[in-house]
Hints:
alpha/beta, 2 domains, Rossmann fold, 34% helix, 494 residues, 9-stranded mixed beta sheet, 6-stranded parallel beta sheet
Amino acid sequence: MENMxxxxxxxxxxxxxxxxxxxxxxxxxxxxxxxLPALYHRYCDGQISDDSRIIGVSRSDYxxxxxxxxxxxxxxxxxxxxxxxxxxWSKFLELVYYVKIDVLxxxxxxxxxxxxxxxxxxxxxxYLAMPPSMFSKICVKLDKVGLVNEKSRVVLEKPLGTxxxxxxxxxxxxxxxxxxxNTYRIDHYLGKExxxxxxxxxxxxxxxxxxxxxxxIDYVQxxxxxxxxxxGRGAYYDNAGALRDMVQNHLLQLLCLTxxxxxxxxxxxxxxxxxxxVLKALKHITLxxxxxxxxxGQYIGGNKENNIFSDYLTDVGSKESSTETYVAIKxxxxxxxxxxxxxxxxxxxxxxxxxxxxxxxxxxxxHSIFGDTPVKxxxxxxxxxxxxxxxxxxxxxEPGAGGMRLKTLPxxxxxxxxxxxxxxxxYERLLMDVVRGNLSLFMCRGEVESxxxxxxxxxxxxxxxxxxxxxxxxGTEGPDKANDMxxxxxxxxx
Length: 494
Protein backbone atom coordinates (compact mmCIF):
# COMPACT_ATOMS: atom_id res chain seq x y z
CA MET A 1 0.00 0.00 0.00
CA GLU A 2 1.23 3.48 -0.88
CA ASN A 3 2.38 5.69 1.98
CA MET A 4 -0.17 8.35 2.90
CA UNK A 5 0.63 11.81 4.17
CA UNK A 6 -1.72 13.26 6.78
CA UNK A 7 -1.89 17.02 6.56
CA UNK A 8 -2.76 19.51 9.22
CA UNK A 9 -6.11 20.02 7.49
CA UNK A 10 -7.09 16.42 8.06
CA UNK A 11 -6.74 15.34 4.45
CA UNK A 12 -4.53 12.48 3.34
CA UNK A 13 -2.55 12.42 0.12
CA UNK A 14 -0.34 9.89 -1.61
CA UNK A 15 3.08 11.33 -2.56
CA UNK A 16 4.00 11.18 -6.24
CA UNK A 17 7.34 10.28 -7.79
CA UNK A 18 9.84 13.08 -8.42
CA UNK A 19 9.17 14.80 -11.74
CA UNK A 20 9.98 17.83 -13.79
CA UNK A 21 7.22 19.78 -15.48
CA UNK A 22 7.95 22.21 -18.29
CA UNK A 23 5.16 24.74 -18.71
CA UNK A 24 5.11 26.34 -22.16
CA UNK A 25 3.28 29.64 -21.76
CA UNK A 26 4.83 29.95 -18.31
CA UNK A 27 4.03 33.68 -18.03
CA UNK A 28 0.46 33.36 -19.29
CA UNK A 29 -2.77 33.63 -17.31
CA UNK A 30 -3.30 29.89 -16.99
CA UNK A 31 0.17 29.26 -15.60
CA UNK A 32 0.07 32.19 -13.19
CA UNK A 33 -3.51 31.82 -11.97
CA UNK A 34 -4.01 28.05 -11.99
CA UNK A 35 -1.03 25.78 -12.71
CA LEU A 36 1.64 27.21 -10.42
CA PRO A 37 -0.76 27.75 -7.49
CA ALA A 38 -2.00 24.18 -7.97
CA LEU A 39 1.54 22.83 -7.80
CA TYR A 40 2.23 24.97 -4.73
CA HIS A 41 -0.77 23.53 -2.87
CA ARG A 42 0.30 19.99 -3.70
CA TYR A 43 3.78 20.87 -2.41
CA CYS A 44 2.30 22.23 0.83
CA ASP A 45 0.47 18.95 1.41
CA GLY A 46 3.64 16.94 0.88
CA GLN A 47 2.68 15.32 -2.41
CA ILE A 48 5.55 16.92 -4.33
CA SER A 49 9.08 16.21 -3.16
CA ASP A 50 12.01 18.61 -3.15
CA ASP A 51 13.56 16.51 -5.92
CA SER A 52 10.95 17.75 -8.40
CA ARG A 53 11.46 20.75 -10.72
CA ILE A 54 9.06 23.23 -12.29
CA ILE A 55 10.28 25.13 -15.34
CA GLY A 56 8.35 28.02 -16.84
CA VAL A 57 9.04 28.65 -20.53
CA SER A 58 8.12 31.71 -22.55
CA ARG A 59 9.73 34.29 -24.82
CA SER A 60 9.48 37.02 -22.15
CA ASP A 61 12.78 38.36 -20.89
CA TYR A 62 12.84 37.34 -17.21
CA UNK A 63 15.57 36.23 -14.88
CA UNK A 64 14.73 33.43 -12.47
CA UNK A 65 14.41 35.95 -9.66
CA UNK A 66 12.11 38.19 -11.72
CA UNK A 67 9.97 35.18 -12.60
CA UNK A 68 9.66 34.36 -8.91
CA UNK A 69 8.55 37.94 -8.25
CA UNK A 70 5.96 37.70 -11.03
CA UNK A 71 4.31 34.51 -9.82
CA UNK A 72 4.44 35.66 -6.19
CA UNK A 73 2.62 38.87 -7.09
CA UNK A 74 0.02 36.92 -9.10
CA UNK A 75 -0.53 34.41 -6.32
CA UNK A 76 -1.37 37.14 -3.82
CA UNK A 77 -3.53 38.93 -6.38
CA UNK A 78 -5.69 35.99 -7.41
CA UNK A 79 -5.59 33.65 -4.41
CA UNK A 80 -7.82 33.77 -1.34
CA UNK A 81 -5.32 31.68 0.66
CA UNK A 82 -5.84 32.93 4.22
CA UNK A 83 -3.31 30.42 5.59
CA UNK A 84 -0.45 31.49 3.30
CA UNK A 85 2.89 30.31 4.64
CA UNK A 86 5.82 32.43 3.47
CA UNK A 87 8.34 29.81 4.53
CA UNK A 88 6.61 27.09 2.47
CA TRP A 89 6.30 29.47 -0.48
CA SER A 90 10.03 30.21 -0.36
CA LYS A 91 10.81 26.49 -0.32
CA PHE A 92 8.42 25.96 -3.24
CA LEU A 93 10.18 28.67 -5.27
CA GLU A 94 13.41 26.71 -4.94
CA LEU A 95 11.80 24.18 -7.29
CA VAL A 96 10.79 26.83 -9.83
CA TYR A 97 13.04 27.82 -12.75
CA TYR A 98 12.61 29.94 -15.86
CA VAL A 99 13.86 29.50 -19.43
CA LYS A 100 13.44 32.10 -22.16
CA ILE A 101 12.59 30.48 -25.49
CA ASP A 102 10.85 31.60 -28.64
CA VAL A 103 9.27 28.33 -29.72
CA LEU A 104 9.29 29.45 -33.36
CA UNK A 105 13.06 29.92 -33.29
CA UNK A 106 14.94 26.77 -34.25
CA UNK A 107 18.22 27.89 -32.67
CA UNK A 108 17.38 28.28 -28.98
CA UNK A 109 15.93 24.90 -28.02
CA UNK A 110 19.26 23.68 -26.70
CA UNK A 111 18.88 26.24 -23.90
CA UNK A 112 15.90 24.26 -22.65
CA UNK A 113 17.77 20.97 -22.98
CA UNK A 114 20.63 22.32 -20.89
CA UNK A 115 18.19 23.23 -18.10
CA UNK A 116 16.56 19.82 -17.86
CA UNK A 117 17.66 16.76 -15.96
CA UNK A 118 19.91 14.32 -17.79
CA UNK A 119 18.24 11.40 -16.00
CA UNK A 120 15.99 9.15 -18.07
CA UNK A 121 14.33 7.91 -14.88
CA UNK A 122 12.71 11.22 -13.99
CA UNK A 123 9.11 11.69 -15.14
CA UNK A 124 9.11 14.58 -17.60
CA UNK A 125 5.89 16.47 -18.33
CA UNK A 126 5.46 19.04 -21.09
CA TYR A 127 2.44 21.22 -20.38
CA LEU A 128 1.40 23.15 -23.51
CA ALA A 129 -0.54 26.17 -22.24
CA MET A 130 -0.32 27.58 -25.75
CA PRO A 131 -2.58 28.10 -28.77
CA PRO A 132 -3.50 24.70 -30.29
CA SER A 133 -1.83 25.67 -33.57
CA MET A 134 1.50 25.36 -31.73
CA PHE A 135 0.96 21.87 -30.26
CA SER A 136 2.36 19.79 -33.11
CA LYS A 137 5.23 22.20 -33.79
CA ILE A 138 6.39 22.14 -30.18
CA CYS A 139 6.17 18.34 -29.97
CA VAL A 140 8.24 17.91 -33.14
CA LYS A 141 10.94 20.27 -31.86
CA LEU A 142 11.04 18.54 -28.48
CA ASP A 143 11.64 15.28 -30.29
CA LYS A 144 14.33 16.73 -32.57
CA VAL A 145 16.45 17.98 -29.66
CA GLY A 146 16.13 14.66 -27.86
CA LEU A 147 13.91 15.70 -24.95
CA VAL A 148 11.29 12.98 -25.36
CA ASN A 149 11.80 9.57 -23.79
CA GLU A 150 9.65 6.71 -22.52
CA LYS A 151 8.81 8.64 -19.35
CA SER A 152 7.83 11.85 -21.16
CA ARG A 153 4.22 13.02 -21.19
CA VAL A 154 2.47 15.89 -22.90
CA VAL A 155 -0.54 17.82 -21.61
CA LEU A 156 -2.74 19.60 -24.17
CA GLU A 157 -5.00 22.44 -23.11
CA LYS A 158 -8.35 23.02 -24.73
CA PRO A 159 -9.53 23.99 -27.23
CA LEU A 160 -8.10 21.15 -29.27
CA GLY A 161 -8.62 22.66 -32.71
CA THR A 162 -11.44 24.71 -34.18
CA UNK A 163 -13.24 21.87 -35.99
CA UNK A 164 -12.94 18.17 -36.73
CA UNK A 165 -10.30 18.58 -39.44
CA UNK A 166 -8.02 20.79 -37.34
CA UNK A 167 -8.43 18.50 -34.31
CA UNK A 168 -7.54 15.51 -36.47
CA UNK A 169 -4.43 17.32 -37.73
CA UNK A 170 -3.33 18.19 -34.18
CA UNK A 171 -3.90 14.65 -32.93
CA UNK A 172 -1.92 13.19 -35.82
CA UNK A 173 0.92 15.70 -35.34
CA UNK A 174 1.22 15.14 -31.60
CA UNK A 175 0.79 11.39 -32.14
CA UNK A 176 3.96 11.28 -34.24
CA UNK A 177 5.94 12.10 -31.09
CA UNK A 178 3.80 10.99 -28.13
CA UNK A 179 1.75 7.82 -28.12
CA UNK A 180 -1.84 7.91 -26.87
CA UNK A 181 -0.93 6.60 -23.42
CA ASN A 182 1.39 9.57 -22.90
CA THR A 183 -1.00 12.22 -24.22
CA TYR A 184 -3.19 14.03 -21.66
CA ARG A 185 -5.97 16.19 -23.14
CA ILE A 186 -7.08 18.20 -20.18
CA ASP A 187 -10.54 19.52 -19.37
CA HIS A 188 -10.49 20.99 -15.88
CA TYR A 189 -14.20 20.33 -15.42
CA LEU A 190 -13.39 16.62 -15.18
CA GLY A 191 -11.21 17.29 -12.14
CA LYS A 192 -13.98 18.91 -10.09
CA GLU A 193 -15.10 16.96 -7.04
CA UNK A 194 -18.78 17.07 -7.93
CA UNK A 195 -18.11 15.87 -11.49
CA UNK A 196 -16.28 12.84 -10.14
CA UNK A 197 -19.01 12.40 -7.56
CA UNK A 198 -21.44 12.02 -10.45
CA UNK A 199 -19.92 8.61 -11.12
CA UNK A 200 -20.34 7.62 -7.47
CA UNK A 201 -23.85 9.03 -7.36
CA UNK A 202 -24.89 7.06 -10.42
CA UNK A 203 -23.02 3.80 -9.98
CA UNK A 204 -22.60 3.59 -6.22
CA UNK A 205 -26.27 3.95 -5.28
CA UNK A 206 -28.80 1.35 -6.37
CA UNK A 207 -31.57 3.80 -5.43
CA UNK A 208 -31.01 5.93 -8.53
CA UNK A 209 -30.11 3.38 -11.21
CA UNK A 210 -33.69 2.13 -11.87
CA UNK A 211 -34.81 5.75 -12.32
CA UNK A 212 -31.94 6.85 -14.57
CA UNK A 213 -33.67 6.49 -17.94
CA UNK A 214 -36.55 7.65 -20.07
CA UNK A 215 -38.90 5.65 -17.85
CA UNK A 216 -38.64 8.20 -15.04
CA ILE A 217 -36.74 11.24 -16.40
CA ASP A 218 -38.64 13.95 -18.25
CA TYR A 219 -35.66 16.04 -19.37
CA VAL A 220 -32.09 16.97 -18.46
CA GLN A 221 -30.43 20.40 -18.30
CA UNK A 222 -26.71 21.10 -18.29
CA UNK A 223 -25.75 24.72 -17.69
CA UNK A 224 -22.41 26.52 -17.59
CA UNK A 225 -23.21 30.19 -17.02
CA UNK A 226 -20.64 32.94 -16.57
CA UNK A 227 -21.25 36.41 -15.18
CA UNK A 228 -18.04 37.76 -16.74
CA UNK A 229 -17.51 38.89 -20.33
CA UNK A 230 -14.56 38.03 -22.56
CA UNK A 231 -12.14 39.56 -19.98
CA GLY A 232 -9.13 40.23 -22.19
CA ARG A 233 -9.68 37.13 -24.36
CA GLY A 234 -11.43 39.07 -27.11
CA ALA A 235 -9.05 38.14 -29.92
CA TYR A 236 -9.37 34.43 -29.18
CA TYR A 237 -13.04 34.44 -28.28
CA ASP A 238 -14.24 36.33 -31.35
CA ASN A 239 -12.77 33.55 -33.49
CA ALA A 240 -14.16 30.79 -31.28
CA GLY A 241 -17.54 31.59 -29.77
CA ALA A 242 -19.49 29.79 -27.07
CA LEU A 243 -20.10 26.62 -29.07
CA ARG A 244 -16.41 25.94 -29.65
CA ASP A 245 -15.22 27.37 -26.34
CA MET A 246 -17.61 25.59 -23.97
CA VAL A 247 -20.01 23.15 -25.60
CA GLN A 248 -17.50 21.06 -27.56
CA ASN A 249 -15.53 20.22 -24.45
CA HIS A 250 -17.00 21.09 -21.03
CA LEU A 251 -20.70 20.57 -21.69
CA LEU A 252 -20.32 17.47 -23.84
CA GLN A 253 -18.06 15.90 -21.23
CA LEU A 254 -20.72 16.53 -18.57
CA LEU A 255 -23.32 15.09 -20.92
CA CYS A 256 -21.24 11.94 -21.37
CA LEU A 257 -20.83 11.38 -17.63
CA THR A 258 -24.54 11.98 -17.08
CA UNK A 259 -25.76 9.66 -19.83
CA UNK A 260 -23.10 6.92 -20.12
CA UNK A 261 -23.65 3.29 -19.21
CA UNK A 262 -21.74 1.82 -16.29
CA UNK A 263 -18.15 1.11 -17.38
CA UNK A 264 -16.58 -2.27 -16.64
CA UNK A 265 -14.17 -0.45 -14.29
CA UNK A 266 -12.77 2.99 -13.61
CA UNK A 267 -9.78 2.26 -15.81
CA UNK A 268 -9.30 4.94 -18.44
CA UNK A 269 -10.07 2.75 -21.46
CA UNK A 270 -13.32 1.49 -19.94
CA UNK A 271 -14.61 4.95 -18.99
CA UNK A 272 -13.62 6.47 -22.32
CA UNK A 273 -15.29 3.69 -24.30
CA UNK A 274 -18.65 4.42 -22.66
CA UNK A 275 -18.29 8.17 -23.19
CA UNK A 276 -17.59 7.68 -26.90
CA UNK A 277 -20.77 5.59 -27.20
CA VAL A 278 -22.78 8.56 -25.93
CA LEU A 279 -21.14 10.97 -28.38
CA LYS A 280 -21.77 8.62 -31.29
CA ALA A 281 -25.42 8.26 -30.24
CA LEU A 282 -26.05 12.03 -30.28
CA LYS A 283 -28.58 12.89 -32.96
CA HIS A 284 -27.01 15.23 -35.48
CA ILE A 285 -28.59 18.65 -35.78
CA THR A 286 -29.14 19.47 -39.44
CA LEU A 287 -30.01 22.44 -41.60
CA UNK A 288 -33.68 21.41 -41.44
CA UNK A 289 -33.96 21.54 -37.63
CA UNK A 290 -31.15 23.87 -36.49
CA UNK A 291 -33.50 26.82 -35.93
CA UNK A 292 -35.82 24.70 -33.77
CA UNK A 293 -33.08 23.05 -31.73
CA UNK A 294 -30.48 25.79 -31.23
CA UNK A 295 -30.42 29.39 -30.07
CA UNK A 296 -27.53 31.81 -30.61
CA GLY A 297 -27.11 34.97 -28.61
CA GLN A 298 -24.74 37.89 -28.11
CA TYR A 299 -24.78 40.20 -25.11
CA ILE A 300 -25.40 43.90 -25.35
CA GLY A 301 -24.92 46.54 -22.69
CA GLY A 302 -26.82 46.20 -19.47
CA ASN A 303 -26.69 46.78 -15.74
CA LYS A 304 -27.23 44.77 -12.60
CA GLU A 305 -27.06 45.93 -9.01
CA ASN A 306 -25.66 49.30 -10.11
CA ASN A 307 -22.95 47.62 -12.19
CA ILE A 308 -22.93 48.83 -15.79
CA PHE A 309 -21.72 46.35 -18.42
CA SER A 310 -20.52 47.22 -21.89
CA ASP A 311 -21.66 45.32 -24.97
CA TYR A 312 -19.75 42.50 -26.65
CA LEU A 313 -18.58 44.60 -29.60
CA THR A 314 -17.01 47.11 -27.23
CA ASP A 315 -15.35 44.33 -25.23
CA VAL A 316 -13.69 42.82 -28.32
CA GLY A 317 -13.01 46.18 -30.01
CA SER A 318 -15.01 45.46 -33.15
CA LYS A 319 -17.71 47.29 -35.10
CA GLU A 320 -19.50 44.08 -36.03
CA SER A 321 -19.35 40.40 -35.15
CA SER A 322 -21.55 37.36 -35.62
CA THR A 323 -19.83 35.42 -32.81
CA GLU A 324 -22.19 33.91 -30.29
CA THR A 325 -21.57 34.54 -26.58
CA TYR A 326 -24.57 32.38 -25.68
CA VAL A 327 -25.80 29.11 -27.06
CA ALA A 328 -28.67 26.83 -26.07
CA ILE A 329 -29.15 23.42 -27.67
CA LYS A 330 -31.87 20.80 -27.53
CA UNK A 331 -29.96 17.54 -27.92
CA UNK A 332 -31.15 13.95 -28.18
CA UNK A 333 -29.39 10.66 -27.53
CA UNK A 334 -30.61 7.92 -29.80
CA UNK A 335 -30.40 4.83 -27.65
CA UNK A 336 -32.75 2.75 -25.49
CA UNK A 337 -31.97 4.48 -22.21
CA UNK A 338 -32.45 8.05 -23.38
CA UNK A 339 -34.78 7.91 -26.40
CA UNK A 340 -37.36 10.69 -26.16
CA UNK A 341 -35.58 12.60 -23.35
CA UNK A 342 -34.57 16.13 -24.37
CA UNK A 343 -31.17 17.14 -23.07
CA UNK A 344 -30.82 20.91 -22.96
CA UNK A 345 -27.35 22.42 -23.05
CA UNK A 346 -26.69 26.10 -22.46
CA UNK A 347 -23.75 28.33 -21.81
CA UNK A 348 -23.23 32.04 -21.97
CA UNK A 349 -21.22 35.02 -20.89
CA UNK A 350 -22.53 38.02 -19.00
CA UNK A 351 -25.41 36.06 -17.57
CA UNK A 352 -27.12 36.88 -14.29
CA UNK A 353 -24.85 34.66 -12.17
CA UNK A 354 -21.90 32.29 -12.36
CA UNK A 355 -22.99 28.69 -12.02
CA UNK A 356 -22.45 25.26 -13.50
CA UNK A 357 -24.98 22.56 -12.80
CA UNK A 358 -26.70 19.42 -14.04
CA UNK A 359 -30.45 19.19 -13.48
CA UNK A 360 -32.30 15.89 -13.74
CA UNK A 361 -36.01 16.69 -14.02
CA UNK A 362 -38.12 13.63 -13.22
CA UNK A 363 -41.58 12.96 -14.60
CA UNK A 364 -44.65 13.87 -12.54
CA UNK A 365 -46.50 11.23 -10.58
CA UNK A 366 -48.86 9.30 -12.89
CA HIS A 367 -51.90 10.18 -10.78
CA SER A 368 -52.40 12.65 -7.96
CA ILE A 369 -54.53 11.65 -4.97
CA PHE A 370 -54.39 15.16 -3.49
CA GLY A 371 -57.26 16.71 -5.41
CA ASP A 372 -56.56 20.22 -6.60
CA THR A 373 -53.28 20.44 -4.66
CA PRO A 374 -50.46 20.63 -7.22
CA VAL A 375 -47.74 17.99 -6.97
CA LYS A 376 -44.38 19.12 -8.30
CA UNK A 377 -42.13 16.52 -9.95
CA UNK A 378 -38.92 15.51 -8.19
CA UNK A 379 -35.72 17.18 -9.30
CA UNK A 380 -32.06 16.30 -8.77
CA UNK A 381 -29.63 19.23 -8.98
CA UNK A 382 -25.89 18.60 -9.12
CA UNK A 383 -24.17 21.94 -8.59
CA UNK A 384 -20.55 22.07 -9.80
CA UNK A 385 -19.84 25.70 -8.99
CA UNK A 386 -19.73 28.00 -7.16
CA UNK A 387 -21.24 26.11 -4.23
CA UNK A 388 -20.62 22.42 -4.83
CA UNK A 389 -23.65 20.45 -3.74
CA UNK A 390 -26.14 17.73 -4.63
CA UNK A 391 -29.83 18.48 -3.94
CA UNK A 392 -32.79 16.14 -4.40
CA UNK A 393 -36.14 17.95 -4.26
CA UNK A 394 -39.05 16.10 -2.66
CA UNK A 395 -42.69 16.78 -1.93
CA UNK A 396 -43.53 16.70 1.78
CA UNK A 397 -46.56 17.62 3.86
CA GLU A 398 -46.47 21.09 5.28
CA PRO A 399 -47.04 20.83 9.06
CA GLY A 400 -50.31 21.99 10.53
CA ALA A 401 -54.03 21.28 10.54
CA GLY A 402 -56.57 22.28 7.97
CA GLY A 403 -55.95 19.98 5.07
CA MET A 404 -53.18 18.47 3.01
CA ARG A 405 -50.73 21.13 1.91
CA LEU A 406 -47.60 20.09 0.04
CA LYS A 407 -44.23 21.76 0.21
CA THR A 408 -41.16 21.13 -1.95
CA LEU A 409 -38.00 20.68 0.14
CA PRO A 410 -34.48 19.50 -0.72
CA UNK A 411 -32.31 16.79 0.66
CA UNK A 412 -29.07 18.74 0.57
CA UNK A 413 -25.56 17.35 0.37
CA UNK A 414 -23.47 20.49 0.60
CA UNK A 415 -19.74 19.95 0.26
CA UNK A 416 -19.02 23.02 2.37
CA UNK A 417 -21.28 21.79 5.18
CA UNK A 418 -20.21 18.16 5.15
CA UNK A 419 -16.53 18.35 4.30
CA UNK A 420 -14.71 20.95 6.33
CA UNK A 421 -11.23 20.18 5.03
CA UNK A 422 -9.80 21.82 1.95
CA UNK A 423 -9.83 19.40 -0.94
CA UNK A 424 -7.70 19.80 -4.08
CA UNK A 425 -9.12 21.88 -6.90
CA UNK A 426 -9.44 20.52 -10.43
CA TYR A 427 -5.96 21.41 -11.65
CA GLU A 428 -4.31 20.07 -8.51
CA ARG A 429 -5.95 16.71 -8.97
CA LEU A 430 -5.36 16.51 -12.71
CA LEU A 431 -1.69 17.50 -12.51
CA MET A 432 -1.03 14.79 -9.94
CA ASP A 433 -2.87 12.29 -12.16
CA VAL A 434 -0.49 13.19 -15.00
CA VAL A 435 2.46 12.40 -12.75
CA ARG A 436 0.86 9.10 -11.72
CA GLY A 437 0.09 8.19 -15.32
CA ASN A 438 -3.66 8.02 -14.63
CA LEU A 439 -5.56 8.85 -17.83
CA SER A 440 -9.11 8.23 -16.59
CA LEU A 441 -9.99 11.95 -16.17
CA PHE A 442 -8.51 12.99 -19.51
CA MET A 443 -10.08 12.92 -22.96
CA CYS A 444 -8.90 10.40 -25.50
CA ARG A 445 -8.50 11.11 -29.19
CA GLY A 446 -11.78 9.39 -30.05
CA GLU A 447 -13.75 11.58 -27.63
CA VAL A 448 -12.34 14.81 -29.02
CA GLU A 449 -12.92 13.87 -32.63
CA SER A 450 -16.44 12.52 -32.04
CA UNK A 451 -17.39 15.70 -30.17
CA UNK A 452 -16.09 17.86 -33.01
CA UNK A 453 -18.04 15.86 -35.59
CA UNK A 454 -21.29 16.63 -33.74
CA UNK A 455 -20.41 20.30 -33.18
CA UNK A 456 -19.32 20.71 -36.81
CA UNK A 457 -22.83 19.71 -37.85
CA UNK A 458 -24.25 22.65 -35.87
CA UNK A 459 -21.61 25.08 -37.16
CA UNK A 460 -22.29 24.06 -40.77
CA UNK A 461 -26.06 24.34 -40.27
CA UNK A 462 -25.62 27.83 -38.81
CA UNK A 463 -23.44 28.79 -41.74
CA UNK A 464 -25.98 27.62 -44.32
CA UNK A 465 -29.15 28.78 -42.56
CA UNK A 466 -30.61 32.10 -41.63
CA UNK A 467 -30.10 31.44 -37.93
CA UNK A 468 -30.02 34.84 -36.29
CA UNK A 469 -27.92 36.14 -33.45
CA UNK A 470 -30.40 37.16 -30.78
CA UNK A 471 -29.30 39.96 -28.49
CA UNK A 472 -29.64 39.74 -24.73
CA UNK A 473 -28.85 42.28 -22.05
CA UNK A 474 -25.77 41.67 -19.96
CA GLY A 475 -26.75 40.48 -16.49
CA THR A 476 -29.77 38.48 -17.68
CA GLU A 477 -30.48 34.81 -18.40
CA GLY A 478 -29.94 35.06 -22.15
CA PRO A 479 -32.24 35.48 -25.16
CA ASP A 480 -35.99 35.02 -24.80
CA LYS A 481 -35.89 32.55 -27.68
CA ALA A 482 -34.11 30.06 -25.40
CA ASN A 483 -37.14 30.08 -23.11
CA ASP A 484 -39.41 29.63 -26.12
CA MET A 485 -37.44 26.55 -27.22
CA UNK A 486 -38.27 24.82 -23.93
CA UNK A 487 -41.81 26.11 -23.59
CA UNK A 488 -42.81 24.26 -26.77
CA UNK A 489 -42.43 21.07 -24.71
CA UNK A 490 -43.84 22.64 -21.52
CA UNK A 491 -40.36 22.73 -20.02
CA UNK A 492 -38.60 25.50 -18.10
CA UNK A 493 -35.01 26.41 -17.45
CA UNK A 494 -34.12 25.67 -13.86
